[in-house]
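Justification of resources, computational component.

The compute hours requested in this renewal are based largely on the per-chain cost of generating structure records like the one below. Each record pairs the submitted sequence with a full structure-token output. That output is archived, and it is also reused by downstream analysis tasks.
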Amino acid sequence: MTEKNMFTQPPEKVALMYGAVMELINEGADVNAIKVSDITGRAGIGKGTAYEYFSSKEEIITNAVIYDAMKKREQIIAIVDGDGSFAEKVNRMFDFIADKFEDKRMFCMLVRIGTGSYEISELLKREYERMQVQADGLGLEQLCDRLMEQGIKEGVIREPNRCFRRMAFGAQVIAIAVCLVAEKKGKNVPVSVEQAKAFAYESLVKSLS
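The structure output for this chain reads:
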């Protein structure tokens, strides 16, 4: 089985290991400290089975991280390339972020690894970079660009600099995340998540007009 199929059509035992890695990370495990036995124990398979498919724990973990990222990317592509106006698609993106917030540790780790702000071992870093190539990259910035281009065509936004467009969208994603964190912690937030999403869209359009 090719490495690409290990992302798109992983064998059952591989999928179980991917799920185990994601569960461990979402429970707060340090990705650098996870052991093969932790993964196989959670997956309910023998430790030796892992080495039938992978050569190291770094390979298991990075494959699992990219597998999860690719599944999320497929959902984002469906939003960006689907029917609807710019406003409808941006709001679907915000809904997607709110829905995936339950996977916040994994989601945040993906973002932080991608931006280089998550401290991972050199072995993990090299493996992650290698597997990104095998997975044809994640392309999230390009998906953001495609969404923003629709906004320009509709005349909703006019900012020509794509870097500024990415920054503006990222800022609103963070703003929504702040509200979600506060709500999750039971804090008395003066606005609802729906109000936060509406304000985020208005702020996005205003900053790029």
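The mean pLDDT is 82. The first helix runs from residue 5 to 8.
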